[in-house]
Structure to design on (732 residues):
């Protein structure tokens, strides 16, 4: 059980993060100025360059990491797995918030309603609550071992919840007719749009990895400091140890 | 229900004494280590306790004594090394837990239920044949049969502790683990506890007694140990050392 | 050494459930609180209802199952509170019974608690909203039992975790409510169909989700429970 020693001084630049931020900025520039607008939806469609990759990364990558790391932690009890899961949850919740904000931002001009029980959006909403619960749970436990175990259990159970949310939304929509959801990203998109999509996926993924790594390192440093404190032997003599009789 | 107190000497001996001649000690600990994350609470501890013996364990707070008892009770698992209870390797599941009784300074009782209900519930958990009978017998041993039908919350702290002890010994365990059991006991309670422990010892149970009360510990002990930072810095037969002398020994050991 | 045989998993669960119910029966405070809460909530919903805008049969299922959820949460927390107070849980875990039996026993006690509260809440809702209860009572009881099973499995597990944290009863709804949605949605939708006079068969697709949820989560929570214990 070794802590990966942070190899960088706190003041040196996180190159991965810098490159990722530049990539995301470049994507925004390209999406806004250099990609044609979609015929039916107009400018609002451009929100999807943010919405789609964030949704994919948050739901599949971030949540997947939390659930799988959690399950592995329960088996292997390696604290690094817990650290990865916690970092993924924090970054994932940010991505999910982006999805939940951009979804209605796109929905209102296109369908006329802020919210629709779209399968992916609804799933994101529920997993967002699960992630928030996850972070609140972690904040309410001091002991590292307990915190890791409880988080792992919540992560695995959350994964089990996913199919039930899907089923419920599917049944709800079949029985209650809803507006048809238009999702760009079909293969018949013009090349320039596809290129922008590809760019946005890559840059958002890069940003996720950079943020995950930065968060993980921070957690590792904090844990190392805390462990050093605990190793300080308690000062002697301990007066309470004096027997009474 | 008879109001007479059953004298301790007339309580029938259990077959533990016969098992004392069997090969394995009741408690066997070998290079036992327990860590919590990076903090090591117990380091490579090795000792054994045979039937009929009492190991009195002294030491400052944070030494790892409670952790050791929790491992032996089956509540925690070892990080490395081995521990055996009655020949079963820990964590041994139901088989090991069935012969262990645990007493701590917290009562581990349900305050809304009566003394008898608490002890009877435990008797059922251990699968005893006539749980109510066993519960009353255990309460008699602790001189509490008159308050058997009182809710635990209406009993004094000392009486609650005695109910807790009755609960822990109702199944006549082969191994009794006691974590500062004298806390909060008055004269009557302490005397009843010491008597019950003596009788358990003489019927062949193996005891590990963690206490800050050197006098009571020495009175019951066949062996003594002083624990600090997860290790035994002294572990020896009780011999004939007097309380005052032992107090000096303890102070020296801890002051080091 | 003697004829003692520690109880198997289900016998131990029954023992523990009986013990929990004995404790609850002794004080009755949590049960009464949950009932009073339910009745108050029903009244509040009733007064907030504009009968000219929404039909009784449209509103009642939602009211019923929302109250079910929140009164259930009230009962759930106390199931591990009683163990924490004097560390009785240690004595339970040091005994020969399985960890799974501890979970099943507590879940069973919670189940009876929730069903007890529902036995009063459901007729109360029927009373206020003038529902044709006699027609639908059988299927409704079935839905209530299925929903209660799902609620107590997830709720018992999370209350075991919440009892060990600084936030305790505040944490339980935060953790559990997302998991309750696949219970409430099928329950409310099937109840709505029943009350509109449709045959139960039409609600079967919803009930299948509920049954599947129950099966998956009873097993998953029983298996996850030992991980909530320190070892």
């Amino acid at each position: 059980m070794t802590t990966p020693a942070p190899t960088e001084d706190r003041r040196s630049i996180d190159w991965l993060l810098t490159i990722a931020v530049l990539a995301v900025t470049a994507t925004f520039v390209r999406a806004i100025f250099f990609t044609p607008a979609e015929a039916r939806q107009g400018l609002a469609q451009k929100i999807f360059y943010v919405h789609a990759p964030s949704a994919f990364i948050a739901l599949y990558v971030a949540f997947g990491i939390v659930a799988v790391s959690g399950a592995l932690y329960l088996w292997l009890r390696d604290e690094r797995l817990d650290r990865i899961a916690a970092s993924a949850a924090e970054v994932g919740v940010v991505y999910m918030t982006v999805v939940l904000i951009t979804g209605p931002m796109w929905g209102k001009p296109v369908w006329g309603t802020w919210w629709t029980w779209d399968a992916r959006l609804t799933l994101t909403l529920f997993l967002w609550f699960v992630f928030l619960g996850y972070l609140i749970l972690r904040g309410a436990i001091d002991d590292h071992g307990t915190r890791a175990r409880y988080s792992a259990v919540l992560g695995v159970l959350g994964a089990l919840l996913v199919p039930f949310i899907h089923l419920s939304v599917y049944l709800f929509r079949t029985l209650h007719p809803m507006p048809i959801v238009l999702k760009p990203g079909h293969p018949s998109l013009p090349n320039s749009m596809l290129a922008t999509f590809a760019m946005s996926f890559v840059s958002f993924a890069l940003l996720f990895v950079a943020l995950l790594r930065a968060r993980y390192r921070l957690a590792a440093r904090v844990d190392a400091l805390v462990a050093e404190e605990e190793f300080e032997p308690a000062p002697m003599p301990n007066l309470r140890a004096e027997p009474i009789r | 229900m008879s109001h007479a107190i059953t004298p301790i000497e007339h309580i029938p001996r259990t077959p533990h004494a016969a098992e004392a001649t069997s090969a394995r000690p009741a408690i066997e600990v070998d290079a036992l280590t327990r860590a919590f994350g990076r903090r090591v609470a117990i380091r490579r501890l090795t000792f054994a306790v045979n039937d009929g013996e009492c190991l009195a364990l002294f030491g400052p707070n944070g030494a790892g004594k409670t952790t050791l008892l929790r491992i032996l009770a089956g509540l925690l698992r070892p990080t490395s090394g081995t521990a055996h209870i009655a020949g079963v390797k820990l964590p041994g599941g139901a088989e090991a837990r069935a012969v262990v009784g645990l007493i701590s300074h917290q009562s581990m009782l349900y305050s809304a239920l009566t003394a008898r209900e608490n002890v009877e519930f435990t008797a059922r958990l251990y699968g005893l044949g006539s749980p109510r009978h066993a519960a009353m017998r255990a309460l008699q041993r602790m001189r509490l049969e008159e308050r058997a039908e009182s809710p635990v919350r209406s009993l004094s702290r000392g009486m609650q502790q005695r109910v807790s002890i009755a609960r822990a010994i109702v199944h006549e365990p082969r191994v009794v683990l006691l974590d500062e059991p004298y806390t909060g006991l008055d004269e009557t309670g302490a005397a009843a506890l010491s008597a019950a422990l003596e009788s358990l010892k003489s019927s062949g149970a193996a005891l590990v007694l963690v206490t800050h009360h050197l006098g009571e510990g020495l009175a019951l002990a066949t062996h003594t140990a002083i624990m600090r930072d997860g290790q035994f810095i002294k572990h020896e037969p009780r011999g004939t050392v007097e309380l005052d002398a032992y107090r000096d020994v303890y102070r020296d050991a801890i002051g080091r | 050494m003697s004829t003692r045989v520690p109880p198997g998993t289900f016998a131990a669960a029954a023992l523990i459930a009986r013990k929990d119910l004995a404790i609850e029966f002794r004080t009755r405070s949590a049960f009464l609180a949950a009932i009073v809460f339910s009745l108050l909530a029903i009244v509040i919903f009733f007064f907030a209802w504009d009968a000219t805008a929404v039909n009784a049969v449209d509103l009642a299922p939602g009211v019923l199952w929302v109250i079910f959820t929140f009164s259930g949460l009230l009962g759930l927390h106390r199931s591990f509170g009683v163990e924490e107070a004097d560390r009785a849980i240690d004595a339970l875990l040091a005994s020969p019974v399985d960890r799974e039996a501890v979970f099943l026993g507590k879940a069973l006690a919670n189940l009876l608690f929730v069903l007890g509260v529902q036995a009063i809440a459901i007729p109360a809702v029927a009373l206020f909203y003038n529902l044709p209860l006699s027609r639908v009572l059988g299927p409704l009881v079935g839905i209530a039992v299925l929903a209660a099973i799902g609620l107590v499995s997830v709720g018992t597990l999370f209350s075991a975790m919440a009892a060990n944290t600084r936030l305790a009863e505040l944490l339980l709804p935060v953790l559990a409510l997302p998991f309750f949605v696949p219970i409430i949605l099928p329950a409310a939708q099937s109840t709505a169909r029943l009350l509109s006079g449709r045959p139960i068969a039409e609600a079967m697709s919803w009930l299948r989700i509920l049954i599947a949820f129950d099966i998956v989560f009873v097993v998953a929570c029983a298996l996850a429970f030992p991980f909530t214990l320190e070892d």
Notes: The CA atoms of residues 123 and 162 of chain A lie 7 Å apart. DSSP finds six helices and no strands in chain A. The radius of gyration of chain A is 23 Å.
